[in-house]
Design brief:
The complex is a heterodimer of chains A (314) and B (204). Chain A has 314 residues and is α/β, with parallel strands linked by helices. The two termini of chain A are 25 Å apart. Chain A is globular, with a radius of gyration of 20 Å. Chain A has a domain of 146 residues: P-loop containing nucleotide triphosphate hydrolases (Rossmann fold), CATH 3.40.50.300. In chain A, the strands form two sheets. In chain A, strands 6-7-8-3-9-10-12-11 form an eight-stranded mixed beta sheet, with helices on both faces. Chain A has a four-stranded antiparallel beta sheet with strand order 2-1-4-5, covered by helices on one side. Chain A is built from nine helices and twelve strands. With 204 residues, chain B is of the alpha/beta class. In chain B, strand 4 and strand 5 form a beta hairpin. The chains are: A alpha/beta (314), B alpha/beta (204). Chains A and B meet through helix 7 and helix 9 of A and helix 4, helix 5 and helix 6 of B. The structure holds iron/sulfur cluster. Iron/sulfur cluster (SF4) binds next to loops of chain A.
């Protein structure tokens, strides 16, 4: 991991807000803010996992970085790549070249194009054919695989093809959105190895997942997503013991609720975007809450080697 | 009570067996884990045990008799994606009523808030929706619960919350539970016995 201070992050997201216009009844419209003041950064060679429950809107972070938010979404905040703030035009230039998305499944591939050819279209430097073969070779995809159509791939081959697409593009930032749903242990381990491999070659990897155990296995830092924002960004080593080194009460609770730890439940549920409480979004469930917690939304601040959005964290 | 599947064979296509010669049994009061890599027919076996799918070979018996063809099904299945298990056009109260009379206190234990009952599925998060599916499946007439990756998409806190309730109801009502999960730690935490389909399934 190379997060020495002073180095420029590959990706820096500052105060990202994403909202949607919703039509409630015929003529009434309201805006729904789904991501609130989210900040996260990724350095070259590093894997940062953004962990949150599914359907919580964390995929919108990926869409915002890639510049592919849906038309009815608006956003504010600054997204910088290599120290430069991104404009929509710049995002379009970088997409698929410097910044690659590894989607959840082969359904994102063109069903009518043979996979070898398809992967070649992602090559931007050098000979497409030899570059594609070279990467397929690396992932044990034989020349026969080049001629297959996406539907003919086994699950394992499909995952390797998707990773190959990112690798041949020469992307420096790879974003993987829920890459391990429904996979068994061996397949999860294999997929995660590919990301480690990308990072070891100098890529920055953002792994967006609901699977905290997968994240803990390979990420260098974990960003914990709750009710539309990251409540903590912690080095992976802090997830140990009783969670003493963790900063946010929600992160501690997540850790202690793992079956191999306490399997301790906690009452309540994560609030939806339209029902966020005043002040700290975790306040209704927090045992450490004080009256100050319900007045203002805590800002993200640095505590030890991490970041936390809690006024009482030490 | 005993739920048993005997010599189950299942295939979608000729010569491509998904399951072959599979035996499994679950006693009331037991929490059994079912493991095996993807492609070994875990979910298919669940669907067969719940009566959603007819086996090509073999039979499913409840205390020695075939599963009832009508009326409330004593074997209830909850799977990974709650949004696919509810009618998108019904308010949650109607979806719950589908399972018949309900133990009201269960809603509170599962953390289901009264105001959610008036909502449509798309107005709830996956975690909230799954609590409804669990409540519906834990009907007083249920004898066996099959949990197919039931909490795989939820955060660990919600997972622990839901399982705490299921374990408590299972103990009180003497339910048999089958847990399918790719998470070894969850299986170890919950189950008294584990069936490995790589050993049991004789498909070639
Ligand atoms: S700010 Fe207050 S309510 Fe929020 S997490 Fe910290 S202690 Fe709990």
């Amino acid at each position: 991991m190379t997060t020495q201070s002073g180095e420029t992050p590959l990706l820096e997201v500052q105060d990202l807000c994403v909202s949607f216009v919703q039509y409630t009844s015929c003529l009434r419209q309201s805006t729904l803010q789904v991501i609130n003041n989210l900040s996260v950064s990724i350095y070259p060679g590093e894997i940062v996992a953004v962990v949150g429950s599914s359907g919580s809107g964390k995929s919108l972070l990926a869409h915002a970085v890639l510049g592919i938010l849906p038309g009815n979404a608006s956003f504010s905040g600054v997204i910088s790549y290599d120290g430069q703030a991104l404009s929509p035009k710049r995002q379009a230039e970088l997409r698929g070249r410097e910044i690659a998305l590894i989607p959840q499944s082969v359904n994102y591939l063109d069903p009518l194009m043979r996979v070898g050819k398809q992967v070649q279209t992602s090559v931007h430097a050098g000979n497409p054919r030899s570059r594609q073969r070279e990467v397929f070779e690396r992932y044990q995809l034989s020349p026969d695989v080049d001629k297959l159509f996406p539907f003919q791939l086994s699950g394992g081959m499909a995952r390797r093809v998707l990773v190959s697409t990112a690798l041949v593009s020469g992307a420096r930032l790879v974003i993987a959105d829920e890459p391990t749903p429904g996979l068994d242990d061996a397949a999860v381990a294999e997929t995660l190895d590919y990301f480690r491999d990308l990072a070891d070659q100098g890529c920055g990897v953002m792994l967006i997942t609901h699977d905290i155990e997968a994240a803990l296995k390979i990420a260098d830092r974990i960003a914990v997503f709750y009710a539309g924002s990251t409540v903590e960004i912690a080095p992976v080593q802090d997830f140990a013991g009783e969670g003493e080194a963790l900063r946010h009460p929600y992160t501690k609770a997540l850790w202690r609720a793992l079956p191999q730890n306490g399997f301790e439940p906690m009452p309540g549920s994560q609030p939806l975007p339209h029902e966020l409480p005043a002040g700290c979004v975790f306040q209704p469930r927090c045992r450490q809450a004080t009256s100050e917690c319900s007045t203002e939304r805590p800002a993200m601040r640095t505590v030890r080697e991490g970041m936390v959005r809690c006024i009482h964290a030490t | 009570m005993l739920l048993e599947a005997k010599q189950i064979g299942f295939r979608y296509e000729r010569d491509r067996w998904v399951l072959r010669g599979v035996d499994i049994s679950i006693q009331s009061g037991e929490i059994v884990g079912l493991v095996g890599p993807s492609g070994f027919g875990k979910s298919t076996l669940c669907r067969i045990l719940a009566g959603y799918e007819k086996p090509y070979e073999g039979q499913v018996l409840l205390d020695g008799a075939p599963l009832p063809a009508s009326g409330f099904h004593p074997v209830q299945l909850v799977f990974q994606h709650p949004e696919k298990a509810v009618n998108p056009r019904w308010r949650m109260s109607r979806t719950l009523a589908e399972g018949g009379a309900l133990d009201e206190s269960l809603l509170g234990q599962l953390g289901i808030q009264q105001e959610w009952l008036g909502r449509f599925p798309n107005e709830l998060s996956g975690g909230e929706l799954q609590r409804f599916c669990v409540a519906r499946a834990l009907n007083p007439q249920t004898r066996f619960l099959l949990a197919d990756e039931m909490t795989a998409m939820l955060d660990t806190i919600t997972q622990a919350q839901i399982w705490q309730v299921v374990k408590e109801v299972a103990r009180r009502e003497n339910l048999g539970v089958l847990v399918i999960s790719h998470e070894k730690n969850l299986i170890h935490r919950l189950c008294t016995r584990v069936v490995d389909l790589t050993i049991t399934n004789e498909k070639t």
